[in-house]
Design goal:
Largest interface: A-B, 27 and 23 residues
Helix content of chain A: 25-40%
Largest sheet of chain B: 5 strands, parallel
Protein name (chain A): DUF3445 domain-containing protein
Keywords (chain B): 2Fe-2S, Flavoprotein, Iron, Iron-sulfur, Metal-binding, Oxidoreductase
Number of helices of chain A: 13
Oligomer: heterodimer
CATH superfamily of the largest domain in chain B: Nucleotide-binding domain of ferredoxin-NADP reductase (FNR) module
Strand order of the largest sheet of chain B: 3-2-1-4-5
Strand content of chain A: 15-25%
InterPro entries (chain A): HODM_asu-like
Radius of gyration of chain B: 18 Å
Number of strands of chain B: 12
Helix content of chain B: 10-25%
GO molecular function (chain B): 2 iron, 2 sulfur cluster binding; metal ion binding; oxidoreductase activity
Shape of chain B: elongated
Chain lengths: 355, 202
C-alpha cells in the first residue's frame, strides 16, 4: 500500500481535505445513537485492514502536512514541547517504540537499522536519513521525545508513574482540544482532568486511572474521544484561543457543511520498557459535516447524538451556541430509520436516506 | 476576620488547612499580611515552637499592624521583607542550608503560599513537611494563558492582563508549578463584549 501524501494546510486558507479513502476509514466515535462519558477502553491490538486501528501508529495521507503544521506551531511557541528533567529516559523509550513500530508496520516508508547503539533512521515521506547513538542526546538535533514526535502524527503526553499516580511530566502538544501543556505539565491525572465536567462525579477518572496504572508492556490500550472544531484547525490551543475563538462565530447555514468539523481523538496507551512511563498518544482526525453525512448511518446517528447531548457537555465541548444550526443541517440527513449497532459505516447493509 | 471559607471547586484547585505545631529540629514560617494572625494563633498553642522559628514576614498592605506582635513572640529570627521577591534570595539560602526534618509553615495569600511551596519543594522538602493556611485577601496570582505573563493580586473577574492587555476570565484551574491560576480571554468569540468585572466570590 502506497500512501499519496496531501499537500494541504490546517490554517489560513484551510486547504485540508479528506480523500474518499480517508472518509471511509474515519474513526466515527459513536457506537449508538446517544453519547455519555465512559472509560471505553479496549486493547490496541490491530483492527480491520485499512482501518485507523490496524497499526500501532496510524500513518495517513495527512502525515507530511501535519508535521509541517507542527513545525510552524513549535517555531511560534516552543513551550508546546516540554520534558521535565527526569523524563529523558522515557523520551528514548518513546523514540524506540515509534521507530520500531513504524519501520515494521510501514517498511516502504520507514527503515530502522540498528548496530549496537548506532542507529540509522530513514523517514522517506519527510526526507530524513539520520544516524545517531541511542541514549546519547548529543547525537540528535533535539531531545529524543521532540525528535521523534516531530515525525509522528498526534499529540503525545508522556506520563511518569509513581505513588500509584500518573504525572504529566512531558509532552508534545500542538493539535490539542483546548488544553495547555505548559500550564498542566507536572500535574497528576486528577488535576489535569479537573476542568472536565461530570466525569469526576461519575467516577470515570478513578476507574480510568486504575486501568492505566496497570497497562503492561506489549499490551497497549485505546479509546476514542471527540469534540467539534470550526475549520480544519489542528492547533485549537488555549494559547491561541484569542485568535481562533472568533472562527466559531463564522458558521452560516450555507457554509456549515464544509466548515464544521467533527474532531475525533484516537487515544492510545503504551507502557514504556525502561522508564516504566506511560505514553499517551492523542491522534486527531478531522472530518467535515458534509463528508460524514455521505455515510447514511453516520448522518442519522450524528444528528441524534448532538440533539440529545446534555447541555453541560455541549458547553464544555464549546459548541452550545452553534448547536441549533448544527441540528438544522444534520436534521436533513436523519429520516428516523433505526441504525445498526457499532461504529462501522455498514454502507452495504444500511438503507439509503429516505428523504 | 481573616479566615475565608472557599466554596468547593475542581480537583486542581488547592485546599488549605490550619497550621498546627509539629515536631521538628527547625521551623521555617513564611507569611504575608494577615498570615501573621495564623502565626500568632500557632504561638498560642506552642509558644516555644514559634520562639525557635525563623519567620519571614511580608506585611503587604497591613504595614506595621502585626510586626510588633510578631516581635513579641521572640522568634529566633524575624525577617520583615517589603515584598516576596525581595525575600527570595534569603528564602533560597535558608532552604539550601536546611537539615532533614525542617518543618515549613506557609500562611497568608494564595500567591505567597504557592510560590513559597514551589521553592520548598524544589529544595527537596517533602510535601508532608509543608503546611499551609490561607489568611486574608482572596486575591489570586493569575497566569495569562496567551502571553504567559503573571498578574499578581487579581481581585476581579474578568480582569485585564497586566502584560498583554487582553481581558481574561478567572478559572479555578491551578498549576502548582507556576503557582498560578489560569486566565483565558473572555471575549475571543465576541471581541469587545466584556462583561462588567465583579469581585471574586461576590
Amino acid at each position: 500500500m502506497t500512501i499519496q501524501f496531501n499537500n494541504e494546510t490546517f490554517r489560513d486558507d484551510y486547504s485540508f481535505k479528506n480523500s474518499d479513502r480517508a472518509i471511509a476509514r474515519f474513526p466515527f466515535p459513536f457506537h449508538e445513537d446517544s453519547y455519555m462519558y465512559s472509560v471505553n477502553m479496549e486493547q490496541h491490538r490491530g483492527g480491520p485492514e485499512g482501518s485507523v486501528y490496524e497499526m500501532r501508529f496510524d500513518v495517513d495521507e495527512h502525515y507530511v502536512s501535519e508535521m509541517q503544521d507542527r513545525a510552524i506551531v513549535l517555531d511560534q511557541d516552543p513551550l508546546r514541547c516540554q520534558s521535565l528533567p527526569h523524563m529523558t529516559l522515557a523520551g528514548w523509550d518513546l523514540l524506540e517504540l515509534i521507530m520500531v513500530s513504524k519501520s515494521e508496520d510501514y517498511p516502504d516508508l520507514f527503515e530502522l537499522h540498528r548496530d549496537g547503539n548506532t542507529w540509522r533512521w530513514i523517514n522517506k515521506p519527510m526526507g530524513i536519513d539520520d544516524t545517531f547513538t541511542f541514549m546519547d542526546e548529543s547525537t540528535l538535533p533535539y531531545g529524543p521525545m521532540e525528535y521523534i514526535t516531530r515525525q509522528a502524527q498526534g499529540d503525545f503526553a508522556v506520563l511518569d508513574q509513581r505513588d500509584d499516580m500518573l504525572w504529566m511530566d512531558a509532552g508534545m502538544v500542538t493539535t490539542q482540544a483546548d488544553w495547555s501543556l505548559d500550564f498542566d505539565i507536572g500535574m497528576n491525572f486528577f488535576e489535569w482532568h479537573a476542568p472536565v465536567p461530570k466525569a469526576h462525579e461519575m467516577g470515570i477518572f478513578k476507574r480510568a486511572l486504575k486501568f492505566l496504572l496497570n497497562v503492561q508492556q506489549g499490551a497497549p490500550a485505546r479509546r476514542l474521544n471527540w469534540t467539534m472544531t470550526v475549520n480544519p484547525l489542528l492547533d485549537t490551543s488555549p494559547e491561541n484561543y484569542h485568535k481562533w475563538g472568533v472562527q466559531k462565530t463564522e458558521l452560516t447555514p450555507e457554509n456549515i457543511g464544509s466548515k464544521q468539523h467533527l474532531r475525533v481523538e484516537l487515544q492510545t496507551f503504551f507502557r514504556l520498557p525502561r522508564s516504566n512511563a506511560l505514553v499517551f498518544p492523542i491522534r486527531c482526525y478531522l472530518i467535515a459535516f458534509q463528508d460524514i453525512v455521505r455515510t447514511p448511518k453516520w448522518g442519522r446517528r450524528l444528528h441524534r447524538v448532538i440533539r440529545d447531548l446534555p447541555e453541560e457537555l455541549a458547553t464544555y465541548k464549546g459548541f452550545i451556541d452553534n448547536r441549533p444550526m448544527m441540528l438544522d443541517y444534520l436534521g436533513q440527513f436523519d429520516d428516523g430509520l433505526p441504525t445498526s449497532p457499532g461504529v462501522w459505516p455498514d454502507k452495504d447493509t444500511e438503507p439509503a436516506l429516505h428523504k | 476576620m481573616s479566615i475565608f471559607k472557599f466554596p468547593e471547586s475542581i480537583t486542581s484547585r488547592p485546599v488549605y488547612g490550619t497550621l498546627e505545631p509539629r515536631k521538628g529540629p527547625a521551623h521555617l514560617m513564611i507569611a504575608d499580611a494577615e498570615g501573621a494572625e495564623a502565626i500568632l494563633d500557632l504561638a498560642k498553642q506552642d509558644a516555644e515552637l514559634v520562639a525557635n522559628a525563623h519567620i519571614i514576614y511580608i506585611p503587604k498592605g497591613t504595614g506595621e499592624t502585626f510586626v510588633e506582635k510578631l516581635q513579641a513572640l521572640k522568634p529566633r529570627q524575624l525577617h520583615v521583607s517589603p515584598s516576596y521577591e525581595a525575600s527570595l534570595q534569603r528564602l533560597r539560602k535558608v532552604l539550601e542550608d536546611a537539615h532533614m526534618g525542617l518543618q515549613v509553615y506557609l500562611t497568608g495569600t494564595e500567591g505567597l503560599m504557592g510560590q513559597a511551596q514551589n521553592e520548598a519543594m524544589a529544595a527537596g522538602i517533602p510535601h508532608t513537611s509543608i503546611q499551609q493556611e490561607h489568611r486574608g485577601s482572596i486575591a489570586r496570582r493569575m497566569q495569562c494563558v496567551h502571553c504567559k505573563g503573571i498578574t499578581e493580586d487579581v481581585m476581579t473577574d474578568p480582569f485585564v492582563c497586566s502584560h498583554c492587555g487582553l481581558n481574561l476570565f478567572v478559572r479555578d484551574h491551578y498549576s502548582r508549578r507556576l503557582a498560578a491560576f489560569q486566565g483565558v480571554c473572555i471575549d475571543a468569540e465576541d471581541p469587545g463584549n466584556v462583561p462588567e468585572s465583579v469581585e471574586l466570590y461576590k
